[in-house]
């Protein structure tokens, strides 16, 4: 059996396997918790940034191949890019990862229950309305500045005339 992943490692990829069998094993490398078959995947917990995860971006399991296994690895960037197109798949992966973390006692429930950040569209809408308000305030400020400039220019002109009269 060849070891393919160690718990505690920092990883930035998720592995899917097309065929073969992989065992999730204890740190001793012998005790098997579960055997994964064709089409399963592992490593998603370390790259999905699941809220409340105590493991951060570290692997949570040791994986050993049982005989020959054909693996396909996705980098974090490639997986996240694919999940943009498939938000339901992302939710499913996050929920499965969350269940594993809960089962293993690796989730901070308080941190996990913090309100979700707003979606990108809502954030962009808020930024756009904030930008419009800033533009309006800037236009008002510029109008006030030009008006004050005109008043000051008139005062200076009057003072110059008065100075000429005093000099004569």
- The residue-averaged pLDDT reads 84
β content, as a range?
15-25%
Structural class: alpha+beta
- What is the 3D form? rod-shaped
**Biggest pleated-sheet summary:** 5 strands, antiparallel
Work out the helix count: 4
Helicity, in percent?
40-55%
Question: Separation of termini?
Answer: 108 Å
Unreliable stretches (pLDDT < 50, length at least 5) are none
Tally of DSSP β-strands: 5
Evaluate the radius of gyration. 31 Å
- Order of secondary-structure elements: EEEEEHHHH
Give me some keywords for this one.
alpha+beta; five-stranded antiparallel sheet; 4 helices; 23% strand; 168 residues
Notes on the protein architecture:
This protein is α+β, with helices and mostly antiparallel strands and 168 residues long. It is 47% helix and 23% strand. The protein contains four helices and five strands; from the N terminus they run βββββαααα. Strands 1, 2, 3, 4 and 5 form a five-stranded antiparallel sheet that branches. A hairpin with a 6-residue loop joins strand 2 and strand 3 (32-36). The longest helix is centred in the last third of the chain and has 48 residues, at 120-167. It is rod-shaped. The chain starts with a strand and ends with a helix. The model has no long low-confidence stretch (mean pLDDT 84). Keywords: Ion channel, Ion transport, Ligand-gated ion channel, Membrane, Transmembrane, Transmembrane helix, Transport.
């Amino acid at each position: 059996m060849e070891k393919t992943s160690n718990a505690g490692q920092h990883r930035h990829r998720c592995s899917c396997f097309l065929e073969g069998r992989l065992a999730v094993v204890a740190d001793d490398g012998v005790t098997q918790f579960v055997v994964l078959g064709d089409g399963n995947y592992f490593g998603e917990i370390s790259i999905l940034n699941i809220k409340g995860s105590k493991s951060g971006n570290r692997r949570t399991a040791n994986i050993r191949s049982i005989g020959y296994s054909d693996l396909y690895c996705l980098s974090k960037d490639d997986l996240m890019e694919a999940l943009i197109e498939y938000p339901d798949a992302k939710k499913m992966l996050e929920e499965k990862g969350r269940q594993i973390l809960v089962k293993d006692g690796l989730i901070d429930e308080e941190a996990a229950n913090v309100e979700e950040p707003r979606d990108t569209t809502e954030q962009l809408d808020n930024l756009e309305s904030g930008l419009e308000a800033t533009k309006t305030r800037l236009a008002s400020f510029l109008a006030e500045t030009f008006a004050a400039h005109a008043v000051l220019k008139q005062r200076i002109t009057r003072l110059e005339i008065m100075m000429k009269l005093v000099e004569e």
